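Please go through this protein, sequence plus structure tokens, and consider how the sequence yields the tokens. Keep your notes short.
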Amino acid sequence: MSNSVAIITGASQGIGKATALRLAKDFSSLTLVARDEARLQETAQQAKSLGAESLVLALDLRQPAAADKIVNDTLGRFGRIDALVNIAGAVPPNRSIRNDGRTVGRRHGAEVSRSSSPHHTSLGRFEGC
């Protein structure tokens, strides 16, 4: 897909990295998001060898401003968003359970989805996740 952009959260390792590298074959541009910048840079290099340009954003999705930064930086660099794959926090480790019983990891993807939904181009507008 020429001139297509995908955002992948959790792109520094595991399923997120594998997904990013698979999407690099079909999308011309990727926004790679995770906390570990060194691992993200490694993913970006591998994606480049597969034909995709990458924007690396080392962010903690637990921070309230992270979702808007992902969307704004992606639009600023690539001008569009065609796909969003939320993998960060999909399988939170036990330490992500807070004392009040809520799982921290679950809401992060929803925040990125909410922030990006008005900007999706080829998929049209969607609500939530």
The longest strand covers residues 29-34. Residues 94-107, 123-129 have pLDDT under 50 and may be disordered.
